[in-house]
Amino acid sequence: MSLSKPYLSNDPQMSSSMLAELTNTLSAELDAERNEAIEEQLKIPRDCPAKIIASVLSPHSTARMPSVLASYRPFKLATAIGYRAIGFGQCGLVFERPGRDYVIKVAKPAYEGGLWPDFRAHFRTRQAFEKEGRDVECRVPKIYSYVPKRNSRWWNENRPFFYDVHQSLFLPSNALITERIPPLPKVARQALINKYCPPQLQHNANANPTNRDCLARIYLGRRRPINAPLSPNFTLRNYNLTLDQIVELGLPAASFAAAMGEALAIIHWAANIDAYDIEFVLGSEAKTPYTQDISLALNLTTEQIAAMEPDTDIESLLSTKCKPRTARMWVLDFNLCNIWEEKAGWENPEMLLPHLVEAFFENDPYYPLPLMEQDLERELWDTFSSTYIDKGTHILSAPGKDSRLVNLPRIFIDSCVKRERQNLSNSLGHGYRELKC
């Protein structure tokens, strides 16, 4: 289907499947336009997938993105383009509307009660990260709105645009609207397919529209088995980027570990969230100019403004500092998180710390782990834990905080090490008993 004319959703000849195809076509064209801009500015190497990925996903790689709707305004997108599913989980499905910077997480029927806690924990985390400033390496999606299923006005207006709804979803439902994490650029996705997808599956992987929705889970606590074959179920949606791949591709594992340690400390001690089942993913960075106040975008203070020369070129400062990266770490998915101060409370560290340790080890293998045998794993744990302690201690040393709490981050790390040592001891003892028998 071509976008050469302005299709309207009230066109009687346009079926839901045709409108869904139109939505998907626009998504693909916007993705191609973004990729063209990245390739042109970064002078992408062509010699091997690993060099391409390292070039595009480097923390120093930035590119000015095109205005996504500029070329498509004649098509009256507001009345034609619908929502397409870009992700799913146990509790709901996530939809985007191509050309917009937001996504909508819609709860499945059995999980409608889980979306409000998701909203509360996400809100507290976002506020805590905002307070720490833009120098924090990891990003948290902005929250735009929350729509309960009883909001008939919103659902009457938006339900017709859910052209292709998964059979497990019944509308209306509760919905959380947040900033969209832009997927990894097409050139990086293509390189991942060329390197890690079985050759006989690469054609289908390139043609599959779901692979445009690529966020890579950063698994610093897992390696693929040695000499394991390429996955016969290859997909780029929620791609598991394991530590051996991170090393193989020349990506900055130590920087990832530091970013995770900093982020977890903020979540624990500034947002007071247990971080249960959160995800750390590698995506792109959203455009920042004209989406934030300059006090946040540039970390400007009243004193700095007062010291500036009249007619200082603020726009050039924005263009230089706020050019989005082609890759950025994000933290998301707060639906299973608990606000721990509502349960354990500050006055019960003997209850709180075991709970935080349990949440740490129950997560997917994002974090480095203590007491690992290989040098790299030990270095990553040292980086993660020292960054976590430094950030957590700084947060709990702020004016107004109880000085008796300042050691909690270090006690948490020590407790993680103690638990892992106990696990290893139990494992060795079990093995000895089996051998003796």
TrEMBL record:
Pfam families: DUF3669. InterPro entries: Znf_prot_DUF3669. Residues 329-398 form the DUF3669 domain. It comes from the Eukaryota. This is Zinc finger protein. It comes from Aspergillus sclerotialis.
